[in-house]
């Protein structure tokens, strides 16, 4: 019975950036809001900048899904999503990034940018 309960409970993974209160810098660019209907806009959190691209983590309207928005400009932005807890990669014109939950080891061939976002360097 205990195993069944664990299997039905929340994943228990955390993403520090998504757990903090929203700030003005967390607002997504208008073109991203208008061009992506799966992102739960109110959950977006700015996590930094790399190579001229702004980076945001957000949740979707689907349960247990996390996304990374990479925004170098209005024409070249990309969004990639993955299941909570599992690492996923987002690539585009401004580079390749890996996303993982708090405490996860850095993906091979990457350097840590924030608690949950890594720059893929190989």
Distinctive features:
122 residues; mainly beta; four-stranded antiparallel β-sheet; globular; disordered N terminus
Q: What would a concise description of this structure say?
A:
The chain is mostly beta strands. The chain has helices spanning 2-8, 16-19, 30-35; strands spanning 45-50, 53-59, 65-71, 78-83, 88-92, 95-99, 110-112, 117-120. Helices cover 14% and strands 35% of the residues.
Report on this structure:
By secondary structure, the chain is mostly beta strands. The protein has one domain (14-120). It has three helices and eight strands. The protein has helices spanning 2-8, 16-19, 30-35; strands at residues 45-50, 53-59, 65-71, 78-83, 88-92, 95-99, 110-112, 117-120. The strands form two sheets. Strands 1-2-3-4 form a four-stranded antiparallel sheet, with no helix packed on it. A four-stranded antiparallel sheet has the order 5-6-8-7, with no helix packed on it. Strand 2 (53-59) and strand 3 (65-71) form a beta hairpin.
SSE order and pairing:
Elements: H1 2-8, H2 16-19, H3 30-35, E1 45-50, E2 53-59, E3 65-71, E4 78-83, E5 88-92, E6 95-99, E7 110-112, E8 117-120
Antiparallel strand pairs: 1-2, 2-3, 3-4, 5-6, 6-8, 7-8
Number of helices: 3
Order of neighbouring strands in the sheet with most strands: 1-2-3-4
Number of domains: 1
Largest sheet geometry: 4 strands, antiparallel
User: What structural class results from the helix and strand content?
Assistant: mainly beta
Helix-strand topology string: HHHEEEEEEEE
Instruction: Give the CA-CA distance, first to last residue.
Output: 45 Å
Helix content: 10-25%
Low-confidence parts, pLDDT < 50 over ≥5 residues? 1-10
Q: pLDDT average, as an integer?
A: 87
- The whole-angstrom Rg is 15 Å
Number of strands: 8
Beta-strand content estimate: 35-45%
Shape: globular
């Amino acid at each position: 019975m205990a195993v069944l309960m664990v299997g039905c409970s929340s994943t228990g993974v955390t993403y520090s950036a998504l757990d903090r209160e929203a700030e003005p810098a967390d607002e997504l660019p208008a073109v991203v809001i208008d061009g992506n209907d799966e992102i739960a806009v109110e959950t977006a959190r700015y996590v930094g900048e790399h190579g001229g691209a702004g980076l945001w983590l957000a949740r979707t309207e689907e349960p247990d899904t996390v996304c990374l928005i990479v925004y170098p400009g209005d024409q070249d932005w990309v969004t990639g999503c993955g299941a909570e807890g599992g690492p996923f990669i987002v690539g585009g014109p401004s580079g390749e990034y890996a996303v993982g939950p708090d405490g996860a080891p850095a993906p091979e061939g990457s350097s840590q940018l924030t608690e949950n976002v890594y720059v893929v360097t190989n």
